[in-house]
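ok trying again, last paste got cut off:
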Amino acid sequence: MTDQSPIPMHPSPSPSQIAFHRTELSVILSLYGRMVAAGEWRDYGISCLREVAVFSIFKRTAENPLYRIEKRPKLRMKQGQYAVIGVNGQVLKRGNDLRAVLRVLERKLIRAIN
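nice, full thing came through this time. structure:
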């Protein structure tokens, strides 16, 4: 007798990659535009991976990113799905409200203008 466990015909749908929604990108790009105007940032990159979407911010092209804004939906019920991560990998802010998480970078804009 062989033990055959049933194989589901329709596996649960899981997204092949995580991406930022248009409203999320609008909030991020608004801050990005202000920082570019202040001369603090110069370039960005977006990566959409299986578990995380990343918006990377650069001072100069071809450098390591100054900051990474990450979206990890699996952390929604734990630490929060959004995070701002610094150049050395330290988490600067984490939460479920993107605008609140980005405030850590807004403070840097205020310092840059003064």
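cool. The chain has one domain: 22-108. The longest helix spans residues 22-37.
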